[in-house]
């Protein structure tokens, strides 16, 4: 198994394997611990086969295995001890002329042990994990601690080695940070947070931020966050939103955000956000301010109608407006259908189009089928294509509560691909078992 991490010296036995082995060992120990009041063992396996052709018309047949395992036990003090593991592997079964692709790849997505106490929201986690605390939204190999303090104050901290999806990109050797917050749980939470990622010679990221949630009335929620890049000495992002839900039939929400690309992507760790690469066509000096809103009405439990709009104001590129309406009907475990129409009004040809979508799905006892059609009609042809069309037909059969087989085929034609056909087959097996304190399955 290959681990994607940032250490400048890559080890023969990746840390992912060590973490996976440690987590599985912990799972076994937890499962065998008779002193725990109750133990729940759960897991899910998703085996996926994709079939299609790439932009060079070469056949691609990758097979994936996604595996999740978890063991959760309650102790006699009301606390909860858990061990969790998630990873994936891929084998390419396609044309051997695709020599630029690896025949096998894998990654440990997470593997950690966590303890949550019955009081004071105390949480302690160790291993590969995803941390979201204020300015931090990062995967790391390390530790995470959180606890309420007193008088409404709480604090959290984390430290470890950043996990990067692309080994050639530097994400620093060490990442650490934390958040301090104050809450009145029914009315508000405000927090300040900080993060630093450092390498041998310099810091990759230094970010400071503030966030809040206000709930002055049960129908009203206001949230927001701002993040400052201390290395570029400028704001990375502001994002604020408000939602009003006076009753079950009516909902209105609005949001405003601003992103400075140069500061926001300064600590990027993936080629996706490397604007200097050929063909990206994105100016790093770009700044985006977006303002939008949604008004939704539910005349019945099954029916919903909504209208939405978003105004994109770019500093370098031209502004654009995206607006439209949706109609949806859903009867749980029986039938669902919907339709939408949206208009994009921009200055560039590729940003002047009308988008139509209709979909439907039906369940028949243990089987289900679905159809989804999307058409994007450009005002002027883009790369010779006036209508970008996508059609997806899917279906599945549930053998029992644990085992399901599904498949779908999609056809698409757009300015980048001509008549592309792709297929997917997915076999899902899920299980969970409960053990009493003496270790017997219920």
Describe this structure as you would to a colleague.
With about 450 residues, the chain is mainly beta. The protein contains 2 helices and 23 strands. It has a 22-stranded antiparallel beta barrel. The two termini are about 35 Å apart.
What's a concise summary of this model?
This protein has 442 residues and is mainly beta.
**Binned strand content:** over 45%
Low-confidence stretches: 1-17
- Biggest β-sheet description: 22 strands, antiparallel, barrel
Strand runs, count? 23
Rg calc: 25 Å
State the secondary-structure class: mainly beta
Task: State the order of secondary-structure elements, H for helix, E for strand.
Answer: HEEEEEEEEEEEEEEHEEEEEEEEE
Q: Summarize the amount of helix as a percent range.
A: under 10%
The oligomerization state is single chain
Tally of alpha and pi helices: 2
From the N-terminal CA to the C-terminal CA, the straight-line distance is 35 Å
Question: Which short descriptors sum up this protein?
Answer:
2 helices, 63% strand, 442 residues, 23 strands, globular, disordered N terminus, 22-stranded antiparallel β-barrel, mainly beta, signal, 5% helix
